[in-house]
Write a sequence for this structure.
């Protein structure tokens, strides 16, 4: 009565193989980009300047970032685990194109559960007498790839007795997803503890060298599966976050990398010249990244912002209005977009949002299986995520990989929301 199965599609969904390969091919570039942004104080400061005036959550993260830099970074090993999400935009001639929805730089989840979905869909196909199709499903094991990154960071931290700390929520609905990664670490003889911000507030401490201790146990790596939404924080949790950020422990991600994943940063990246400045001398990487961008627009208080606000009010179905939030269910579409934008168009509040072109994928039929829900066929669209893992020591990248993929599918009547939001379900790509 307390455990449900994770929702999944009955059948794997068709994914164009060229776009699937394109998504894998650009992942290392995205890893480099996120890492470069996280180290670029001026870029983050300049990009988030208007947002932090009106968005308190981003402002608080930003203040921690500034405080840690002023004190001097104690952390020298950096671990990034991200997931770049895409949809297949259907052009006027019907050709699908890979378009990035966003990149998640904190608590990018479902790498664990999705390591098991290939087996589920392979089994279903076999039951249906389609064993040839079953054998064509690609192996996929992000749990291992994620754990290899954490293990590398732990090793470079350089203390055999130190542990990895998963920072988790009080009510943890997605625990099995995390256990998949955790088990991979135990298999490598790395100890894992699971703690909440409250535990850190009560029992966390730093020594003179800013080593982090929990209950007297040294922590090498802090892996956040929490801390990406305003409701994750009260005053004590903010203090705990600051303590972790000041420490020498490897944070996955550090606060700068979390800020690199904001929607505002994503929008600034699409400005001509920005990628070139962030990744100098990497023209090919820049071209691969840019090819995945949809139209993104600033709502800053200037002529450009006025113009796009007016365009979106006149034609809301072309756009998605996004605040600086993660976790699904925060974006605005259609009539609601129009109403909200109309209300805030002349107020600085609008700068806490960005506008993005709405991606329109070609729907396909599938069954969405969810505990306690009736079984019926739905018209569905899918979102492909690629997991990126990287480890940097000082200035040297010692690991940069694409660690696997995630396919999530939802009924077309839901504009927004992922698996955790109760909208999308786990799927497996069937390459065509
Ligand atoms: P969050 O950080 O809340 O996950 P996302 O930017 O990923 O925010 O948006 C949540 C969901 O909204 C996505 O999973 C996708 O289904 C839908 N969505 C977001 N951006 C677009 C877009 N540009 N076009 C179509 N759907 C979108
Ligand atoms: Mg998302």
């Amino acid at each position: 009565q307390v455990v449900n199965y994770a929702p999944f599609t009955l059948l794997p969904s068709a994914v164009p193989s060229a776009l699937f390969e394109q998504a894998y091919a650009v992942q290392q570039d995205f890893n480099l980009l996120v890492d470069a942004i996280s180290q670029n104080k001026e870029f983050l400061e300049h990009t988030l300047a208007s947002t932090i005036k009106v968005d308190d959550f981003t402002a608080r993260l930003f203040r921690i970032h500034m405080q840690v830099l002023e004190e001097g970074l104690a952390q020298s090993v950096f671990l990034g685990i991200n997931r770049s999400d895409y949809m297949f935009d259907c052009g006027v001639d019907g050709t699908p194109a890979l378009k990035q929805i966003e990149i998640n730089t904190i608590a990018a989840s479902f790498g664990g559960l999705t390591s098991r979905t290939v087996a589920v869909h392979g089994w279903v196909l076999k039951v249906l007498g389609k064993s040839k199709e079953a054998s064509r499903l690609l192996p996929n094991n992000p749990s291992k790839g994620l754990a290899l990154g954490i293990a590398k960071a732990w090793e470079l931290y350089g203390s055999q007795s130190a542990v990895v700390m998963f920072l988790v929520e009080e009510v943890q609905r997605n625990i099995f997803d995390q256990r998949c990664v955790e088990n991979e670490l135990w298999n490598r003889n790395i100890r894992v503890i699971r703690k909440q911000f409250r535990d850190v507030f009560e029992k966390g401490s730093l020594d003179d060298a800013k080593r982090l201790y929990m209950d007297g146990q040294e922590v090498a790596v802090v892996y956040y599966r929490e801390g990406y939404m305003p409701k994750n924080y009260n005053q004590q949790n903010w203090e705990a976050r600051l303590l972790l950020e000041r420490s020498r422990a490897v944070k996955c991600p550090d606060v700068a990398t979390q800020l690199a994943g904001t929607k505002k940063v994503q929008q600034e990246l699409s400005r001509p010249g920005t990628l070139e400045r962030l990744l100098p001398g990497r023209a090919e990487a820049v071209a691969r990244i840019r090819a995945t961008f949809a139209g993104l627009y600033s709502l800053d208080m200037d002529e450009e912002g006025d113009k796009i606000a007016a365009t979106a009010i006149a034609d809301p179905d072309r756009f998605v209005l996004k605040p600086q939030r993660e976790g699904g269910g925060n974006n605005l579409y259609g009539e609601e977009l129009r109403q909200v934008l109309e209300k805030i168009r002349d107020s600085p509040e609008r700068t806490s949002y960005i506008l993005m072109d709405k991606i329109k994928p070609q729907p396909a039929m599938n069954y969405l299986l969810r505990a306690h829900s009736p079984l019926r066929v739905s018209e569905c669209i899918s979102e492909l995520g690629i997991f990126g893992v990287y480890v940097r020591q000082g200035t040297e990248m010692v690991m940069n990989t694409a660690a696997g993929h995630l396919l999530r599918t939802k009924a077309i009547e839901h504009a927004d929301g992922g698996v955790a939001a109760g909208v999308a379900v786990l799927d497996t790509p069937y390459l065509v």
In short: The radius of gyration is 21 Å. DSSP finds 16 helices and 18 strands in the chain. Residues 298-358 form a domain with the Dna Ligase; domain 1 fold (CATH 3.30.1490.50).
